[in-house]
Specification:
The protein folds into 2 domains: 69 residues, DNA polymerase, domain 1, CATH 1.10.150; 176 residues, Rossmann fold (3-Layer(aba) Sandwich). It is globular, with a radius of gyration of 19 Å. Strand 5, helix 10 and strand 6 form a beta-alpha-beta unit. Strands 1-2-6-5-4-3-7-8-9 form a 9-stranded mixed β-sheet, with helices on both faces. Helix 8 runs parallel beside helix 9. Helix content is 42%, strand content 14%. By secondary structure, the chain is of the alpha/beta class. The chain has 13 helices and 9 strands.
Length: 282
């Protein structure tokens, strides 16, 4: 049985608790056979999580997931694998298992995240497209979240000249969200890499997206924010980037534009103004 896949399937057991279990018991296989009292020695694991661990030991379900992954060319990368990105391994709560379709070798490239508002202006989407296109033509791999607005525009800019890009999503790889990016999803799967910490069958729930942002910043050498309102979700990516010691860049925007409040405030707080690739400090 694929014990790493089983470990990834346990509901309500986050990456921090999984890491504590691995530190104490070395492997998912060892954890699978532990008695209740051993599992509950880990801080934060109570009766409810134990019940989820116990219920997850459905070998037929794990085998069905594995069969689906094999059929759809979905691969997994575990935290103890040599190919697991070192930059991601060093963050506070690295995902224990990553699932992916596409070219995993892209994680070895120089990666830059380009993120921003879902409700982007046409100006913002145009800027994101051209920033990503310029980065990709200069041997950078563009990372974003495959969301509507800035993310989608950044991915399109990267693949415009048949260059590659990495999309980090907030669901299992059997979901395409938002549906408007369906064709873009397919193009990235063929030319680039789609990455997630969520096992097949995980819906694109709103709570998943803030967590996936730590992966976007974790695999990137810097983060460029194109447009962001004061409460934009892309600012969560900025917080993770700062926590991880990454450079944050912001595209200057119209002071009268709602979608530029966040980026302009980022620059006031010390973000590096970004108008072109010469502004990168790497």
């Amino acid at each position: 049985m694929n014990y790493w896949l089983w470990f990834a399937s346990i509901e309500m057991l986050g990456s921090v608790k999984k890491q504590k279990l691995l530190e104490k018991y070395q492997s998912p296989e060892n954890i699978y056979y532990l008695e209740k009292e051993k599992i509950m020695q880990i801080s934060g694991i109570g009766e409810k999580i134990w019940n989820n661990i116990n219920l997850s030991k459905d070998i037929s379900k794990i085998n069905k997931i594995q069969d689906f992954m094999n059929k759809h060319h979905i691969h997994q990368l575990n935290i103890d694998d040599e190919e697991y990105p070192k930059g991601l391994k060093n963050i506070y709560d690295p995902p224990i298992t990553l699932f992916y379709v596409g070219n995993i070798e892209l994680l070895k490239n120089k990666c830059i995240a380009v993120v921003g508002s879902r409700a982007a202006t046409e100006y913002g989407k145009n800027v994101a497209f051209h920033i990503a296109n310029e980065l990709s033509q200069n041997d950078y791999t563009v990372v974003s979240g495959l969301a509507a607005g800035i993310d989608g525009a950044a991915h399109r800019g990267a693949v415009h000249n048949s260059n590659s890009t990495i999309a980090v999503i907030g669901s299992g790889l059997d979901y395409t969200y938002p549906i408007e990016n369906y064709s873009l999803y397919g193009e990235i799967a063929r030319k680039g890499l789609i990455l997630t910490e969520y096992i097949v069958g995980t819906k694109p729930l709103s709570c998943n997206f803030p967590a996936r942002n730590r992966i976007i910043s974790g695999i990137s050498e810097g983060v460029i924010v194109v447009e962001a309102s004061k409460k934009s979700g892309s600012l969560i990516t900025v917080d993770f980037a700062l926590e991880q010691g990454k450079n944050v860049y912001a595209v200057p925007g119209n002071i009268n534009s709602f979608n530029s409040i966040g980026t302009n405030e980022l620059m006031k707080d010390g973000a590096i103004p970004y108008t072109g690739i010469s502004d990168l400090l790497l």
